[in-house]
Amino acid sequence: MQSTVQWLENVAFEAKSESGHTVVMDGSPAYGGENRGARPMELILMGLGGCASFDIVTILKKSRQDITDVICQLQAERAESIPAVFTKIHLHFVVKGHGIKEKQVAKAVELSAEKYCSASKMLTDGGVEITHDFELIELSV
To answer: What domains sit in the chain, N to C, each tagged with a CATH number?
Structure first.
């Protein structure tokens, strides 16, 4: 996997992925940014949510659950000192659909956290405490 990050101006950068997608990153105005894009640490948090959500959707589809939406809400805490690394992250999954079995969702969340999510594994190996929970929303037919 490869990526290129190019400086645009001030503290703004454009990242290009190997698959051809671009993302603009920018610092906060307090550091000379203009709020033109997500902060780099926000992208790490979003990447974790995307990685875990990918697992949840894939696992639930394989277990034939009739899901219509999966939302991952993340809350993170960072160290007070430099480097201001993540210390705690909580992932809350909101799973919507028809006749979804709670046991299947619990299993999907557990498998993502303990086996499949590369981003989660990398962060927990680095000392980040990651917790998970979920809620089911049954949609009427």
So the answer is: 1-38 (2.20.25), 40-138 (3.30.300.20)
